[in-house]
Design brief:
With about 260 residues, the chain is of the alpha/beta class. Helices cover about 30% and strands about 25% of the residues. α4 packs across α5 (about 145-155). The termini are far apart.
Amino acid sequence: MPGSSSSPLLGCQDVSLSRGGRLILDRLSLSLLAGTLTALLGPNGAGKSSLLKCLTGELDYDGEINLFGHPRQGWASTDLAHRLGVLPQSSSLNFPFLCEEVVAMGRLPHSEPGSRRDEIVKAAMTHAGVEHLAGRLYPGLSGGERQRVQFARVLAQIWQAPDEPQGPRLLLLDEPTSALDLKYQHQLLTMARALAGRNTAVLVVLHDLNLAARYADRLVMLEQGRLMADGSPAEVLTPELIARLYDYPAQVLHHPDTGLPMVV
């Protein structure tokens, strides 16, 4: 079920979610186009991770979600896995798999020769900067190393060779930098930014406003399950909005070289 390259790859219309009698998402509408990296921001409890879980089918919701121009519930799981990659906050995988075996799990939805799978796994690990971990046991890794291996798994799952036609893809990243040191935060978001340039829409949950300002085209700010702001970093990162949502008296400066806002 291919979608048109000019239509949204993700469309949410009046999405609501209640759990335990509490309203988590309140008639939220959002659309994402290919070629964009959107940062999803907001204080704890704003509904960011819950929205991603609705998009992935983990949570039932009211309203409408379309992926690649078709209702989410109409997609076969294998077909959707070819073009939708999801990196959760953390992984509960504790079996003694080698890291290269974990990354190879990303190719399970695909039918291909083993040699092709191995080629993609190696390339994905190289792009994620974890090729040196290929022979290590996954449970013995640090939290940051695990997150980077899981990112390589997601890359392997939606991998398209540079010389192949670039089909539309959607990448959902839930707090992908939380366990990473500064170097690898920038490495991961640089890779996500590059993927967005290849017919892909990227939606990433972030807490670091400065990382969001540096890498995202668009910031979407949630408060108590509602859309409170949507626009460029310069439009969204205002002292007034930051003080309101984060209860933090922020000062917003502008980088002398890039002109991007910086929250201090």
